[in-house]
Amino acid sequence: MTSMRKPLLGSVAMALALSAGAAGAETIRFWTTEEQPERLARQESMAQEFGEASGHTVEVIPVTESELGTRATAAYAAGDLPDVIYHPLALALPWAEAGILDPDAATDVIDALGPDTFASGALEMARFDEGSWASVPADGWTQMIVYRADLFEEAGLEPPTSYAAVETALEALHNPPEMYGFVAATKVDEAFMSQVLEHVFLANGVSPVGPDGFTPLDEAATTEVLEFYKAIAEASPPGDLYWDQSRTLYFSGNAAMIIWSPFILDELAGLRDSAPPTITDDPTSSELASKTGIVTNFAGPSNPDGAAWASINMFGITGDAQTDAAIEFVTYSMGEGYVDTLSIAPEGKFPIRRGDGDDAEAFVNAWSELPVGVDRKAPLSDLYPQEMIDEIVAGLDVAQRWGADDGQLALASKMISSQALNRVVREYIDGEIDASAAVEQLNSELGAIQ
Known about the structure:
450 residues, single chain, alpha+beta, 8-stranded mixed sheet, 21 helices
């Protein structure tokens, strides 16, 4: 659906000038899933600053993310949608196809700000049709392999950027119980295992969905995934493992590699009392952070370019919106107010826009100086070297999710939620079935999901 409405904003300068005179002062409603009190207060402050600059009024309305789909559907049916919704990637295309979102309005914002200023991977996942986007990618984070860079350097190992590099590191570093080579996710009923598995499958270019829906898994490439996952599971402690054990063992100095979200970054540096590193006697020490490296773009043997699993959040302008005022608000939130948008939770809001027309790295540099932490605060740039900051942000350029490029994210989400992947992979790593039987069972179960 190519936009037929002429863009309201013809340039970045015009977009950020926020001239409300043409549209008149409006009151718009903004639904946000960032409902924690401190984050909500930041958004209300931003809305006030925007109002002072534009003349518009923004009502900030918190909505629990698990209720977002139901509430939006009901509001759409009643003709009572808000003007702007901050929402996860999974809802963008279904909502645009249903008429809940206005792709023309989102496209106007992106065109005004400059598509080349957005991380290409994140922008591609928002694609609605040729030349248009369902929603405006706002921020996101990429899942990471977190590893002991100091031990890798001592052993002369390359960073764990590929299956092969991880397996080489396992041979050198796995020495239980003092040091486990990895802590793989093996607890079948945890969403964490689903998330980690999708990351590992994406790394090898394997997906159960394509443009027409379910696509049978390639046996050879899927077998490579299964064999790799079995290798990291065998280098893990026994039992049903999920995010808790992986963080605990890494924090105690008993794990060489784990897969985690960036929300671990402030904890690694001793800034959160509820989850301190225990590798030293000082829970506030940043020693473990100084010994840690991360990898976002991870590659398997059948996909040497690799991939980064990403969680993306977006600003959606609805079909019921006061469109011009909503465009101004989203443009402000992604432009003049973008650093404030990221400051709501910097450790989990990586900048999807690196910079603007004046400075290509302006937002990345400003984001790296934002304080993170709970009980103590410090900017990421004080805690981690520049090359690590660059790696964190670069993941969004190669960000992927099953089905996102094919318009099948909803189907892929159903497959993941079924936990069939978790169950079958666990049966394989426990030796109950071989790789061929695992691929056959996955194709049977995933193919039956509509």
